[in-house]
Amino acid sequence: MSSAESARNLEAFLDDHSALKQTPLHALHLSLAGKMVPFAGYDMPVQYPAGVLKEHLHTRAAAGLFDVSHMGQVRITAASGTYEDAAVALEALVPVDILGLKPCRQRYGFFTADNGGILDDLMIANRGDHLFVVVNASCKKADLAHMQANMPGCSVTLFDDRALLALQGPRAEAVLAELWPDVTTMKFMDVRDATILDAECIVSRSGYSGEDGFEISVPADKAEALAKALLDHPDCQPIGLGARDSLRLEAGLCLYGNDIDATTSPIEASLEWAIQKVRRSGGERAGGYPGAARVEEDLQSGPVRRRVGLKPEGKAPVRAHAALFAEDSPESPIGEVTSGTFGPTAEGPVAMGYVPASLSAPGTRVFAEVRGKYLPLTVTALPFITPTYKR
Hints:
This protein has helices at 3-19, 26-31, 52-61, 83-91, 140-150, 172-177, 220-231, 241-250, 292-301; strands spanning 35-39, 42-47, 63-67, 72-78, 106-112, 118-126, 131-135, 154-159, 162-168, 191-196, 199-204, 213-219, 236-238, 305-312, 323-326, 335-343, 348-356, 365-370, 373-380. The strands form four sheets. A six-stranded mixed beta sheet has the order 10-11-12-9-3-13. The chain is globular, with a radius of gyration of 22 Å. The chain has nine helices and 19 strands. Helix 3 packs across helix 8.
């Protein structure tokens, strides 16, 4: 390679790096020696000096603090100023009961496409006179445009002046209670306003680790002070994207773009639990959202394929995109692994993927092709760990 080519490559790398966005906690990550990597257009910490394994186990045993400020935080307000009108407008885009969501509560949902596939999954909160929605970082631009184009009579605003922290683990309540004692009265999926260190926050008792925990929306200029105060607690450590991925996989939780996407129906993805009876066939507000016909068909007749847990035999993880084969038909793939890693709490490799519905029963044996070899896996019920949400 010539010196001119090297210079051009270096210039391109620097341009790509400079194009990455930074969260309000970027300087803190660097001060904590976080290993930074590009993720969803942001410069994000994948791990800290402790390493992914120790970060994972610490979160399961105590409390871990994650920077999830790259996620999109959206406010939806109806022109009428009523929650009901905003809820009805959003129900035209999701197969979820938003109108029946009680104040100060939130629930999981997803945008569906005309083909019944999933455009994104999201958290939806009833804030009394408006909706507060958190969407995935990689989808937030498209999600914002989707809502603005398809929710007439509503104002849809993306907050770009707020950070989002996730505090997860069995000691999360004790850590946050040092700064905000009222947290002890919250239950899973509650949402509250909170003044923490003079910052006006929105706190939900939720997360994506399978553990009890909280997500804290905080003004960007107050985020570092709050993060430092939480990390000052001896039970709390910073956690990167690497452990976040292994934690959510052990908990059987989907990662958009890997386990669900615009080709995947909610029923194929085993997410029918998120579609309340009132939005199903025969319900008071059935249908009325994109792809309702396919979703209802899958609900009534069963999908062709299903997302399942997969437990590889041995110690070698089976990674995403590995082809899956039936025991009696090794020549033709029957599905694919969508997520796979080593599960520190499960004490072995864990994975998720799609198989034909006829092969989705726990205990079914399938094989994954890894570097030319066929490794056996057992279809397993999800999650791989017992969640510890405070009900």
